[in-house]
């Protein structure tokens, strides 16, 4: 999850990273080491989630803009972002299961 290491933790997390779920707040941490996350381990699928204000695609989404530049630099990277509708659904499930707003 996020930018947590997997090397040295294989006993806990397995020997490969197929899917990495990343919070919008951790995207800058991934981008500190893009060669590792997006070139060496290019078989990993990244699912990025975050609030609409950061993920909007109209040029005003700070995190979305960072990801767009990353995809331009690493075209084989498999980076996907959640939709606003999916985020609303996840927020509702979180609240139902925990009784708390995210």
From TrEMBL:
Topology versus the membrane: Single-pass type II membrane protein
Keyword Nucleotide-binding among record annotations: no
A cellular-component GO term for this protein: Golgi membrane
This protein's UniProt keywords: Disulfide bond, Glycoprotein, Glycosyltransferase, Golgi apparatus, Lipid metabolism, Membrane, Sialic acid, Signal-anchor, Transferase, Transmembrane, Transmembrane helix
Any GO molecular function: alpha-N-acetylgalactosaminide alpha-2,6-sialyltransferase activity
Lipid metabolism among keywords: yes
Pfam families with a match to the protein in the record: Glyco_transf_29
Domain of life: Eukaryota
Known catalytic reactions: a ganglioside GM1b (d18:1(4E)) + CMP-N-acetyl-beta-neuraminate = a ganglioside GD1alpha (d18:1(4E)) + CMP + H(+)
GO biological process: ganglioside biosynthetic process; oligosaccharide metabolic process
Subcellular location(s) of the protein: Golgi apparatus membrane
Primary location group: Golgi
Similarity comment: Belongs to the glycosyltransferase 29 family.
Protein name as catalogued: Alpha-N-acetylgalactosaminide alpha-2,6-sialyltransferase 3
Organism for this UniProt entry: Mycteria americana (Wood stork)
